[in-house]
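agent> Task received from the user: take the single chain below, predict its 3D structure, and emit structure tokens. No templates, no multimer pairing.
agent> Plan: (1) validate residues, (2) run structure prediction, (3) serialize to tokens, (4) report one or two observations.
agent> Step 1 OK, no nonstandard residues flagged.
tool_call: predict_structure(input=
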Amino acid sequence: MPCMGKSRSVTTWVSAISALVRLAAEMAASPPPDPTDPGAATTGPGPRVEAVELIRIAIPLVAPFRTSFGVQTQRDVLLIHLLGDSGEGWGECVAMGEPGYSSEYTEAAEQLIGQHLLPRLLARRRVSAAELGGVLESIRGHRMAKAALEMAWLDLELRVAGMSLADYLGAARTEVDCGVSVGIADTREQLLETVAGYLDDGYRRIKLKIEPGLDIERVRAVRERFGPGVVLQVDANAAYTLADAEHLGRLDELGLVLIEQPLPEEQLLGHAKLARRLTTPICLDESILSATVAAEAIEMGACSIVNIKPGRVGGYLEAKHIHDVCTALSVPVWCGGMLETGIGRAANLALAALPGFTLPGDTSASDRYFHQDITAPFVLHDGRLRVPTGAGLGVEVRRDVVDRLTTRRSMVRPG
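)
tool_result: status=success, residues=415
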């Protein structure tokens, strides 16, 4: 595993910040490459978007998914469908139906996109995915909503260019190792049965959701049943406080890869203090909102591993930026999941194929969550998923399935 020291030299820190600023400038100025020259960036305008369809779907989960902030039985998903003068593009908003994981939620995202974000974008005759951040900068926050639009714009632009998102981002592999996230079970026996099934499926890493009262003994039971060879980590979703440090220290004897987001998202200093009391590495999720925050969290010792979720940070361009900063600091990253459909899963696989993603992520197979996906299903092979190679996101949306699951749709046009 890459070095995960809890302090960095001043020289390394200054070098990383310089790289961060340079990369930000480069990415802001770089639309998708010319398909005739994959190594070069074009300077022309993006495709013209003539209409945007906002589609809400309700897609049932194969089983309830319980975390420290609630239980989900279905996903309330907002899809973005761009209709351009040269093709179409699809995006997915990862905000949940309730503001539990974050302050964003599906209903608010739809309203924001329709009333505030799209009018700003469609007022311009043409706009590229790389320009979206600047155009929408006056709207504070709402990263998941912005990320959904960026995904759709990237899909449209790269379809036109004949280039895959994986190639555009700089993927280094054609398959990615897959882990699986296991929700909080009603009983220890149910948890052990569930984990056994995922190991039989071939998943290369198990992540256990935990909360106070359902943590140490549950994790210990999994470790004792399946042995030291299983790659195991836990995710608290900000359910603990610094006063729980001694309790969380009991996880150290269980050989975990990491403990993810033990404290509330704004408590970077608290995480740094906790990290000094644990030998299990701390990974941050909800706290990491940008490359700047990631660099600061690493420098202050708040984390030594980073979970990158494109929706949480505002899109795939910022996600790549975080990857690049963490790679420069020799900090391992992995790709988190938000129970995405095949649209978001395809994009996540493209991101997870970048060279700095050295730990298995939450890019599980489609059947982990859905009986039927809205794209062709992603199927696990030897614990890995193949990275899409087609233009754009590399998947085709099954409109018949989308139509059957649709609960609401609207159309937004320029003017």
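agent> Step 4: summary for the user.
The chain has two domains: 10-16+167-386, 49-162+399-412.
agent> Done.
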